[in-house]
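[audit] Reproducing an earlier prediction to check determinism. Same input, same settings, fresh worker. If the tokens differ from the archived copy the diff job will pick it up downstream; this log only records the rerun itself.
[audit] input (325 residues):
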Amino acid sequence: MNRRRRRLLITLGVVLLTTAGLFTANSSALWGDDDGRPLLLAHRGIAQTFPLDGVDNNTCTAARIHPPDHAYLENTLASMRAAFEAGADMLEFDVQVTADDRLVVFHDSTLECRTDGSGRIRDHTLAELRRLDLGHGYTADGGATYPLRGKGSGLLVTVEEVVAAFPDRELLIDLKNDEADEGERLAAYLATLPAERLATIGVYGGDAPVEVVRSRLPQVRATSRKIMKSCLTGYLALGWSGHVPGACRHTELHLPERYGRLMWGWPLLFADRMREADTRVILVAGDGPWSAGFDRPEDLETMPAGWSGWLWTNRTDRISPVLRP
């Protein structure tokens, strides 16, 4: 064997051994923890779901719900209580700021889609918003019937009321508008809470308001698209070595299952590494658009075996009995 061929074979052997070592070191089968159980994040409590095909930023999702099999309205105390009673481990809810500077729990920045009101949340006072019917616009048959109309009057609540209603539960606040002043308003309220309560509350949303919350209250677990992108690109570059970038620490990742497969050590070792970095990994169904959740028992077929991270769901009542019979 000539010297050139011998050198080529040695190089190839080193490459193969190195590659095998990298994959072994990042193998969930060898290193991941499969002894846990999934934790459930209840998205807006128990919500009315809707088909995702054709949905865009301007779609009124209340006008295309599935035929209701429950009477709960998202982001209301009743739907939140029902989610916890069904087995939720954490509650996510949406936040807007009113004309009188109150933090209210509502998804849309405008009122026309879901309620009998009109205009922006930002242009109405809390008292005005309390008079609206939150179920006014929900229909499953193109407007022929409105099964939830009249059932949402007076149900709008504030962030303070949600925090008080569930004093010992994990909460995740979604700042719906990418406005720095809304981050300032939320940070001012959160700063009034005792440290032990603040430890149970997370924040996510637009880059601008989340950055304000993180700068004012670095102890709060917070994330945004910018933070998640910084974390995941850094991990893709260096995660083969087991290194977890600083951007991944004390935060959370809303990760579509389809893209999680790209991560070193996916799924179990990746979740373990993030857990050691004090970061939650929340698995979102499919590609992750428009709040797709694990909402039906059949959706769980795509959940990684042995998954002990978080699952995003709009229907804790359907999913919890399957996971915890």
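[audit] rerun output stored. Observation attached for the diff report: The chain has a mean pLDDT of 91.
[audit] end
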